[in-house]
Structure formats: structure tokens, C-alpha cells
Write a structure and sequence with these properties.
12 helices; 7-stranded mixed beta sheet; 2 domains; 6-stranded parallel beta sheet; about 350 residues; binds NADP nicotinamide-adenine-dinucleotide phosphate; Rossmann fold; alpha/beta; Quinone Oxidoreductase, Chain A, domain 1; globular
Length: about 350
């Protein structure tokens, strides 16, 4: 086992490509109940960049190792009295900075220590790319549909940014569960793709009126459940399009990609419809959910996702690998509109 490893560290809040440095750090030692993981692959999520810019719902202590979400790796060593996992196993680490305190201090490093109760073994047939993206987006899709909104078979679900990774997973899951989806996209080009993926209806805001079109598609009963990750005016229109008593769960704010535009971070609701039609708007944040869930419940949800992915119900597009040294390119790709493959940091077999 090497004594030192490479880690991508941000010294302070700022633009990720400016504040990140490749550093050599001692390989950590696992304590009681912990495992030492040799990381194989870890994604660059938009939320990782929000954390470094100081705009996320959680602020780590700086300097901080980047990557606060998820990774896959092999167990290299166990701390004293650590049970339930074995050395050599390939496992998913859910690192999301669960409130009130993070379980893992950064995934953009070659080795990390993690609570062994939060590790999920993954079968060989799931690639590193798939395994390292199993937690954040698929779990969000699963929890939104089955727990937060509790959408039943035959019910209608309205969702925005249907072409996003989470949006696509919601479509796949809904199809599997017999839920009918009305999918909002912003580009006409995306419409056929969403239909081919199994989206029942698609509304394109480039040339259609969201509220009017949803009313036509949903019919007299209307739609009572929605998931929105755009916020701003689109979020407001989603609320407007709901039937009385309906609710929208907001889980993202893509209207203002870097969360710098205060107007787009606001969802202007009509007080009349909130009062007289008792419509509700709620938030969902996986981190908060994980903070409240027991390790067993969190692992149960993650293993449900693993099953759905292994059975081909959910598919996670292959990411694009980058070595740590090319972090500026990886970050730039993560922020390019319609970038397709998600950038991943990958590590050599030698660690
Ligand atoms: N709350 C949570 O716990 C949680 C967990 C996971 C993800 N999220 C959030 O979920 C959202 C989606 O994440 P992701 O990783 O699935 O995204 P992604 O794969 O990077 O996809 C982004 C998508 O959003 C669309 N988009 C971007 N800006 C838009 C706008 N202003 N209006 C409409 N569509 C827009 C893009 O459409 P084009 O194809 O037209 O460019 C693209 O399809 C993000 O906001 C993320 O932070 C939240």
C-alpha cells in the first residue's frame, strides 16, 4: 500500500478550475467501523461545482478534497471491528454530504475512508462508470417517484428537464411502474428522443405554452403530481398547470445554471391558487433525505436502484473518463450545454 496518494484539493471557495490543485496527501487510515477504499471512478456533478463555488446547501471546511457525492472502488483495508464487508470487494460509496455532517471527505482522491455500513457491493456486470453514478441521480429519481410523490400505476406525472439524467431515469422508472409521464423539454430536437425513451407525452417550451398544453393532455381530471428541476418561470408554470390539490416537488434550479440569477432562483406562485386550490410546492434534497434516513434505509434504497439497473430497467449513460491531472478539461465538459457523457475521474489499476 502506498503511503501517499494524489488528491484534488480546493484551498478556498472560488471558480473550481482556479482553486483546485493536485496535491500529494497521506493515505488515510480506517478507524473502527470504517473501510479504506481505493477509488476507481467518481463523477463530476454540477453539485460538486456548486460546493466549490460556495453556492450549495452545504459548505465543507476548506481546504477540501473535491467531489462530495459518490464513487466506486475496491476495499483495501478495514478498521478495527469493521463488519459486513470484505477486503477486495468492489463497492459504491455514497458520499453525499448528508446533513448534519458529511460521511466522506471528498471523492476526488485515490483513497478515502468510509463508514462500512454505507457501502454497497456491486456485481461485475455493472461497469465502473455505471456503478460510480448509482447513488445520486438514480436514487433521486426513485425517491421522487415512489416516496416523495408516491405516484401510482395509471397516474399522471408531470416533469421538467425531461432530457436530464434524472429526467430520463424518471421516464424509465415510470414506464416500468405503469405511470404515465408528461415531459417538458426546452428544445424541439429533444422531443423524438424523449418519446423513443418511453415518455408518453412531450411538451416543448420552445414553441408550446406549458400550461395550455398540459391542460389539453391531462384532460378534465388534470395532473396532480409534478417534479421540477428548472424552477423560475417554468417552475411557476408547472404549479399553474396542476389540478387543485396538486403538488410539485422542486429538486433543482436549472433556470440559473450557476445559481447566480436571483430572479431565476425564485418561483413566483399565484397566491390565489395556493390558497383556494390548495396547491403545494415542496423541496427535495437527497442530502437531507440521507441525513434523516438510517444507514439501513439508505442502503435499502440504493440496493433497490442497483437491482433496477442490473435488471436493465434503468440505464445510466456511460461517462467520459478523465485522469485527475485533466481536471480543468473535465470541469469544462461538465459545464458545456448538452454535453452528453458525464465526465468521470478514473484511476489506474495501480491506484
Ligand atoms: N435535489 C437533489 O437531491 C438532486 C439530486 C440529483 C440531481 N439534482 C438536480 O437535478 C437537475 C438535473 O440533474 P442532472 O444531473 O440529471 O442534469 P444533466 O444530466 O446535466 O442534464 C441537464 C438537462 O437540463 C436541461 N436544462 C438545462 N437548463 C435548462 C433550462 N433552463 N430549462 C430547461 N431545461 C434545462 C438540459 O436540456 P438541453 O438538453 O436542452 O440542454 C439537459 O437536458 C440538476 O438541477 C441537479 O442539480 C438534484
Amino acid at each position: 500500500m502506498p503511503q501517499f496518494m494524489r488528491a484534488l484539493v480546493a484551498g478556498k471557495v472560488g471558480e473550481p478550475a482556479d482553486v483546485l490543485r493536485l496535491e500529494s496527501r497521506p493515505v488515510p487510515t480506517p478507524e473502527a467501523g470504517q473501510a479504506l477504499i481505493r477509488v476507481k471512478a467518481t463523477p463530476i456533478h454540477a453539485s460538486d461545482l456548486h460546493v466549490l463555488r460556495g453556492r450549495y446547501g452545504f459548505r465543507p471546511e476548506f481546504p477540501t478534497v473535491g467531489g462530495h457525492m459518490e464513487c466506486v472502488g475496491h476495499i483495501e483495508a478495514l478498521g478495527p471491528d469493521t463488519e459486513g464487508v470484505t477486503i477486495g470487494e468492489r463497492v459504491v460509496v455514497v458520499a453525499v454530504p448528508a446533513i448534519p455532517r458529511p460521511h466522506v471527505a471528498g471523492t476526488w482522491q485515490e483513497y478515502l475512508v468510509a463508514d462500512a455500513r454505507r457501502l454497497l457491493p456491486v456485481p461485475d456486470r455493472l461497469s465502473d462508470s455505471t456503478a460510480c453514478q448509482l447513488a445520486v441521480n438514480p436514487m433521486t429519481a426513485l425517491l421522487l417517484v415512489t416516496r416523495e410523490l408516491d405516484v401510482g400505476p395509471g397516474e399522471l406525472l408531470l416533469q421538467t428537464a425531461a432530457g436530464s439524467t434524472v429526467g430520463r431515469l424518471i421516464i424509465q422508472l415510470s414506464r416500468y411502474l405503469g405511470i404515465r409521464t408528461i415531459n417538458v423539454v426546452r428544445r424541439r430536437d429533444a422531443v423524438e428522443e424523449i418519446k423513443a425513451l418511453g415518455g408518453d407525452e412531450v411538451v416543448c417550451t420552445e414553441d408550446e405554452d406549458l400550461v395550455r398544453r398540459v391542460a389539453e393532455l391531462a384532460g378534465p381530471a388534470g395532473v396532480r403530481k409534478a417534479a421540477d428541476c428548472v424552477a423560475g418561470q417554468v417552475g411557476a408554470q408547472v404549479s399553474q398547470a396542476l389540478a387543485p390539490g396538486g403538488e410539485v416537488v422542486v429538486y433543482g434550479a436549472l433556470s440559473t445554471h450557476r445559481q447566480t440569477d436571483p430572479a431565476a432562483l425564485t418561483i413566483p406562485l399565484q397566491a390565489r391558487s395556493v390558497i383556494y386550490e390548495t396547491k403545494a410546492v415542496r423541496g427535495f434534497w437527497l442530502n437531507r433525505w440521507l441525513g434523516a434516513a438510517s444507514p439501513e434505509d439508505a442502503l435499502r434504497a440504493l440496493s433497490q436502484v442497483r437491482g433496477l439497473v442490473a435488471d436493465g430497467v434503468l440505464s445510466i449513460p456511460e461517462g467520459r473518463p478523465f485522469p485527475l491531472e485533466r481536471f480543468a478539461d473535465a470541469i469544462s465538459l461538465a459545464e458545456t450545454p448538452a454535453h452528453g457523457a458525464k465526465p468521470l475521474f478514473v484511476f489506474d489499476e495501480g491506484g
